Amino acid sequence: MRDIVFTRSSGWIPNVIREDGVLKLMMGAGADANHEPRTFTFPIGENHLAVIQEDLARHLLLWSAVLPLCDAAGTRGRLDEDAAVALLDPILLSAPADVDALFQRIRCDRGRLIAHGADIDLLERGQVCAAMRAATETSNGRRAQEYHAKRRRADRGTVLGPLDTALLQYTGQYLHGATVPRRIPDAVAPALLPEVLRVIATAEQACAAMRIGRDPRRGKRATDKGDWERMATTVDAAVRRSHPELVDDAVRTVSVLMCSEAADRSRNKPMEDDEEAPGTRADFGARARKTILSFTDDKGVEKKWLPDNPRTATAEFWEFVADRSAGDNEVFTIEDEEKGEGIQLHFYADSIARITTVHEGVGGADPEYRVEYSLVDGIGAYRNLVRVFVRGGCAALERHGTWMSDVTEFERARRRRDAG
User: Phi and psi dihedrals of 129, rounded to 5?
Assistant: First the structure.
C-alpha cells in the first residue's frame, strides 16, 4: 500500500510517500536498460517530513545530494540507502554553516539547484544555503544549460565577448556545441545582429566558389570529408583575417554553419555526375558512349548501364555504390565486356586496378589479362578516375595515376603511403 503524503507542484521534485506504514522519500532519476525512468525510495522520519514541507531550499538541497547516488545505481543497481539516509540530518536539520561545509565535501547536482533559481555566485563561493534563498518550485532548464556551457568554456580557458556570444546564439550552438548549426537571427540582440551578419557575409564570400561533394562509399547521404575540411579551413582563415578579435568557438561555429549548409545542398540533390555540370563537354562524352557497362560489388550483385539510359554511367555507378557499400562490401567493379577492359575500386585500401584483356581465350583456354594498380587519394580522385574510364577506357587512365603491374611493388608503395 502506497499513499502520497506530500508533493510539490513540480512533478520532478521528490515526493514523500507512506509505504506499508513507513515514510519514504520517492524520486525519479535515470533510466533502466529499456530506457524507462527509474524510481528510488529511502526511509525518512517525521522530523524530516516537517522540514521538507516547510523549507523548499532544504528539500531541493537534499534532492541535489541524493541524485549522484541514483546515478551510481546505474540502470539496474540498487540505491545505497544507507548513504541516502546519512544525508538527511546533515542537510535537513543542521545549521546553515554546517550544511555549507557538508556541500564542500559531497557530490551534488549543482545544475538542478541552478535550474530552480539558486544564486550562481553564492553557490560557487560555497554558500549553498544563502544561494537557495531565491529558490523556486518551477524549473528553468535553460538557466542550468547556460551555466554548464559557461563552465565547459571556462575549463578550456575560453571567455566569450558579446560578438562571440551573438554568433553562437545565431547558429544555435551557444548551449550545445554538438547541435547542428542553423540560422536563428531572432536569437541575437537586435543591436548585435548587423555585426553578426557582417561576419556571416565574410564567410559566405570566402567559400562561394566551393562545394562539398557526395561520398557514396559511406552511403546515400554521406559527404566528402576532404571537401568539408577544405571549406572549413578557407572560412576559418577568412573570418580570422577580417575579425581577429573572435575566439575559436565563434570562428568554428561560422565555419561549421557554412559546411553544414553546403553538405545539405549536396545531400538533397540526386546522385548525378556532380563533378561536372550537365551540358559540359565532359558530361556529353560520358553520355555519348556506345557500349554497355556492368557494375558489380564484392557480394556478386550486378547492375547494367545501357547507352540509352537518360542518366550518365558515372551517376548510375555511384548510385549503385551508395546503395551497396558497407563495411564488408568495399570492392566495386566497372566492366566494359565489349572492349574487354574494366576497373576495380578497392575502397578499403584507397587503391584501384585497371584490367585489360591481352588475349581472348581460345579453345576453352582462359583469357590473358594485364592488371595494373594505382593508389587513390580520396573520393574526389575516385570520381575522376571513374569519369575518365567511362569516357575513354583504360587507355585514358594512363596519365591519371602511377600504374604498377608488380603486386609486391604496389604493396610497398601502399605501406609507404599508409605509414607516412
Answer: -65, -45
Cα angle value 184/116/171 (rounded, 5°): 15
CA distances for 12 relative to 27, 36, 60, 86, 116, angstroms: 7, 15, 11, 22, 11
pTM over 0.90? The answer is: no
User: Residues 379, 380, 381, CA angle at the centre, nearest 5°?
Assistant: 90
Cα–Cα distance between 257 and 21 in angstroms, integer?
Answer: 59
**Interhelix angle 162-170/248-267, nearest 10 degrees:** 20
Look at the block and give the residue holding cell 550544511.
99
Question: What count of Cα atoms within 13 Å lies in the side-chain half-sphere of residue 332?
Answer: 25
In whole angstroms, what is the distance from residue 199 CA to residue 409 CA?
51
Kindly report, residue by residue over 153-187, the tens digit of the pLDDT: 888 888 999 999 999 999 999 988 777 899 999 99
CB atoms within 10 A of CB 38: 17
* Cβ-Cβ contacts under 8 Å for 80 (sequence gap 6 or more): 69, 72, 73
- The size of the chain, in residues, is 420
Vertex 214, ends 209 and 217: CA angle to 5°?
A: 150
Helical H runs in 219-312? 225-242, 248-267, 281-287
Residue 83 CA to residue 60 CA, distance in Å, equals 17
User: Residue 112: left (phi > 0), alpha (psi -120 to 50), or beta?
Assistant: alpha
